[in-house]
Write a structure and sequence with these properties.
mainly alpha, 4 helices, disordered N terminus
Length: 197
């Protein structure tokens, strides 16, 4: 039997998504400005590089590095979207249990915690996506070493994001699911005891 969500649950989920999409558009605009600024700084620095071929390679590397950052951030946002959808389903089922008369206070608390963690994780991912990895104009290191350092920094940033924010959001959704499972079991056990008497 499929449980249909109340309009308020769907409306809240859609409102959160619309709010997130507005913030996403703002991040995209800021990112485009930063990328343009980074390209200009890179061209200034590369004017000192005598070989034109090396200039083209350095520009391409910078653009690819930022594209990889975008790809990682988009994957992380998709992961959070899936968890948010799962949380919406949990919320719908909790609502159905409440309509039957079950106590879902623990589930409601777990859902609120998970929503907060997902929101915090989205903010962290947007902040990461907003980062632009570019060459330091004052660096005296060779361009290859500078890019290797930027790649390492980007990888560390994404690893920290996955180990902190994304894992916390995932565990919060899992806790909400377990709370729902416990509430359903308690309700079913109480119903079974009531039927036996």
């Amino acid at each position: 039997m499929d449980v249909v969500a109340s309009p308020t649950v769907r409306e809240r989920l859609m409102d959160r998504r619309e709010e997130f999409l507005k913030r996403w558009e703002a991040v995209k605009e800021r990112r485009q400005d930063k990328l343009q600024s980074m390209r200009e700084r890179l061209k200034e620095r590369l004017e000192n590089v005598p070989d034109e071929r090396k200039q083209v390679i350095a520009e391409n590397l910078a653009e690819r590095l930022n594209a990889v950052n975008d790809t990682h951030a988009n994957n992380e946002l998709r992961f959070l979207e899936k968890n948010e959808n799962l949380l919406g389903k949990i919320e719908e089922r909790a609502s159905a249990l409440k309509n039957k008369g079950a106590d879902i206070s623990a589930v409601t608390t777990a859902i609120a915690n998970a929503q907060g963690d997902i929101s915090n994780a989205k903010e962290a991912v947007l902040a990461q996506k907003d980062k632009v990895y570019s060459l330091d104009q004052n660096s005296t290191e060779p361009i290859g070493k500078t890019f290797a350092g930027l790649v390492s920094q980007m990888n560390r940033d994404h690893q920290a994001l996955r180990n902190d924010s994304l894992k916390t959001a995932k565990n919060s959704v899992r806790s909400a699911l377990m709370a729902l499972k416990d509430a359903a079991k308690s309700f079913n056990d109480a119903s079974a005891e009531g039927d036996e008497e």
